[in-house]
Amino acid sequence: MADTFNYRIDHHGSLVRPGDLATIGVEQAVKDAVTFQRKLRSTVVTDGDFPREDFRSAVLDGVSGFSRTDETDPDGLARWVAESLPKPAGPLLADSAAKLAELTVIAPKASLPSPAYLAATTYEPGLGVSSARELGEALAEIIRAEIELLIAKGVRLIQLNNPLLLDQLEHDRGALSFEDALAVEALAVRLDDRPEGVRVGVCPGWAAPAEADRARTEKLYTEIPADRWILPFDQGTQAELDLVRALPEDRDFCLGVVDATVPELEDIDTVMQRIDAVGEFKDLEDGAVSPSRGFADVAGRPLLTAEAQRQKLVLVETIARYCWGNEF
Q1: Strand, coil or helix: what is 200?
Q2: How far apart are CA 103 and CA 90, in angstroms?
Q3: Percent of the chain beyond pLDDT 70?
Q4: What's this model's pTM, rounded to 2 decimal places?
Q5: Rounded (5°) CA angle 81-84-85
Q6: Most buried of 1, 47, 96, 246, CB within 10 angstroms?
Q7: Long-range Cβ contacts of 236-239 (<8 Å, 24+ apart)
């Protein structure tokens, strides 16, 4: 799939919120974030998820059928449950993405939770939805329509996040089986037409499983027709390399080459050796680099300070230029 639209310097979407967000307001904070990303020479721009509580909120706050509970998970995510099949109240991200596009000539990017992830984590038997698969399919139709609307609004890179998929290469997790998860994700990303330069990507998790089932890994990539796979690549393990090796030749890949959870900076030579190993079996023209995950997928629980985040993003930009020079 090698072409000139690989968005080499990428990030997952969420950024550390400014400490004075309540004072300056979300709109100004987003403008400042766009300037920040432009100065970093990123090839994509997001709103940092500043208008949202966490990486799921665009969907959970934008559709009916879900109820928030008082429980939270270890990552600080509030638990929601599905009480009925969801229906959208309007666009999820398209309106804010259109405003983002007006602020920059750099490709706008939008990140959404995947329908399979939401179904697996919100389905509760006996609450009005017959199965997790039915819930996932309903969410997939909503997200697929939103993807089409985002593209119409000028968004060129769309990422669906499912932190469970890589774990499911070893065993099923959540209320949705691996087979059902693949079918649900496929419904969301299977578009009849993509304009030039558009990429619909899937991030299947933040860490490679120790012993991924090879047959399941290949099925993951073949069953979900995503253009781009955003993969963990910050630990230097054989498992990470195997995830990239199993990718079909016609898919883009974005390697999460720096750890977004620790402030220590990676050694560039070490990172480049890992990327060189990928180059032995993949065309690096189909590649991109990013941090390993979002920096603040939960607004109130940033993984790093704003300065440590800046240093990590600068390092990603430096690594990209080591790989591909100045031609993006």
Answers
A1: strand
A2: 23
A3: 98
A4: 0.94
A5: 105
A6: 47
A7: 236/270, 236/274, 237/208, 239/208, 239/209, 239/210, 239/211, 239/212
